[in-house]
Amino acid sequence: MDRIIEHEGKVAIDSGWHNDWNEPEQYRILHISKANADDWHDLIGSSVTWSGNTGTVRRYDRTYYLRVDDAREWTKFIETRPVKKPRRGKNYDWEWERGAWRKTWR
User: What gap in Å lies between CA 29 and CA 22, rounded to an integer?
Assistant: First the structure.
């Protein structure tokens, strides 16, 4: 589930880490707004549900709608990190397949 976070003093939506299906790496997508986090500190840590390009945040009996398709107000940032390969065994090795390391027998 996506969450509202503070990123370099701005409000951002963090998708969390996900495995890439084709490469042994993880990625996360940050949608960084131009809004100052200090102005929206009550929303930091809130969950975001999606309907198309609009995120919905419910907090303290109020509903906020965040449209991330507006490129003037939001910047999309993709961060990646490698997924370490497990140790090879005597009779098997590891191969990245559909987003996870799988044993391949020799």
Answer: 17
pLDDT by 10s per residue, the chain, length 106: 799 999 999 999 999 999 999 999 999 999 999 889 999 888 899 999 888 888 888 888 889 888 887 767 888 999 999 999 999 999 999 999 999 999 999 8
Characterize 66-90 residue by residue with b for buried, 16 or more Cβ atoms within 10 angstroms of its Cβ, and e for exposed: bebeeeeebeeeeeeeebeeeeeee
pTM above 0.85, yes or no: no
- At residue 5's C-alpha, the angle toward residues 44 and 69, to 5°, is 105
